[in-house]
Amino acid sequence: MIELQSFLNEDFERLISWVNSEEELVQFAGPFFTFPLTNQQLQKYKERTDRRSFKVCYQATAETIGHCELNFQSEIPRLSRILIGNETFRGKGLGRKIVAAMLHILFNEINVEKVDLSVFDWNIAAIKCYEKIGFRINEGGVSQIVVNGKTWTSLNMILYKKEFLANSQALL
Questions:
Q1: How confident is the model over 132-152, as pLDDT tens digits?
Q2: How far is Cα 62 from Cα 57, in angstroms, rounded to an integer?
Q3: DSSP readout, the chain?
Q4: Strand 150-160 to 136-147 pairing
Q5: Closest CA to 85 of 171, 19, 151
Q6: Average confidence (pLDDT) over 29-40
Q7: Please, which residues have CB within 8 angstroms of residue 125's CB and are 6 or more apart in sequence?
Q8: With left for phi above 0 and alpha for psi between -120 and 50, is residue 142 left, alpha or beta?
Q9: What is the pLDDT of residues 45-66, one digit of tens each?
């Protein structure tokens, strides 16, 4: 249904077109980029060796519909910058498919034992998606950021390989 392919320079303009405000950029990427997103920022991002970034392709049409990243910046690999940019593909369960593809790489190809991610507490749809897969909120992993004068609370969620593998058939 979906396939993760390497994020290339030719994908920059598409990603930029999906991010129309500072709020959308922070929701997608946290404080990592500054608005407006530019080719120069994406070039520096792509050159980093502590991340693997992907475009998300919908196999039935070969259309690029999103973006995601595996982040190896800390001892626990992190799922980051998950975005279904093409709005017509939102709300169709593809977020779970994207996360499952990312977890396949981490748990089966790289063989890590746990992964985490961050999500804003008001992003209920994303939290439910992650919980269905098996992620649980890490109560000690709460942080805050101010975006346009409003405080946003970020929750850390964690998933262990053994729990995911025990339940993955029922969850996905």
A1: 999 999 988 899 999 999 999
A2: 6
A3: -EEEEE--GGGHHHHHHH--SHHHHHHHHGGGS-SSP-HHHHHHHHH-SSEEEEEEEETTTTEEEEEEEEE-SSSS-EEEEEEE-SGGGTTSSHHHHHHHHHHHIIIIII--SEEEEEEETT-HHHHHHHHHHT-EEEEEEEEEEEETTEEEEEEEEEEEHHHHHHHHHHH-
A4: antiparallel
A5: 19
A6: 95
A7: 91, 95
A8: beta
A9: 999 999 999 999 999 999 999 9
Nearest by Cα to 50 from 25, 78, 26: 78
CA distances from 141 to 40, 46, 51 (A): 31, 27, 21
Residue type at 104?
H
**What token pair was written down for 38?**
């530019």
pTM of the model as a whole: 0.94
The second-level CATH assignment, the architecture, of 2-171 is 3-Layer(aba) Sandwich (3.40)
Distance CA 130, CA 79 (A): 11
The type of residue at 90 is: R
Structure tokens that stand for 119 in this block:
């999500």
